[in-house]
Amino acid sequence: MNDDGRIFREAWITGVKKHFPGEPKPGYITPWDDTPDWERQSAAAVYGQVRDFITVSGGHTSKLSREQKGRFVALCWIAQIHKHIPDPKPGYVADWDALPEWQQETDADIFEHIEQTI
Fold this sequence. Notes:
Layout: H1 2-19, H2 37-56, H3 66-84, H4 101-117
Helix pairs in contact: 1-2, 1-4, 2-3, 3-4
């Protein structure tokens, strides 16, 4: 499970560095070993949800659009936020259309990275 979360986190960091306009906040690119426990648990959980989705789809997720892939990651992450943070800031649980473009692209990258790793 730790490897799953680490793979997710590394894909997140790679996406942030690629898509974030300017210099990202340090918390966005915190290395795995310094990531808070709740975030590690969430990363592993969302990796597992994406992996399971790909598996039960018989690998046909390759036919989804990047937006559909990113939306799935974002929605799974929102559920984890609600699980771990009793009263999250609205930005933490924003729906897809309210997310900045860099975050949408990063979420889609994460899905595609998981597709390539399984």
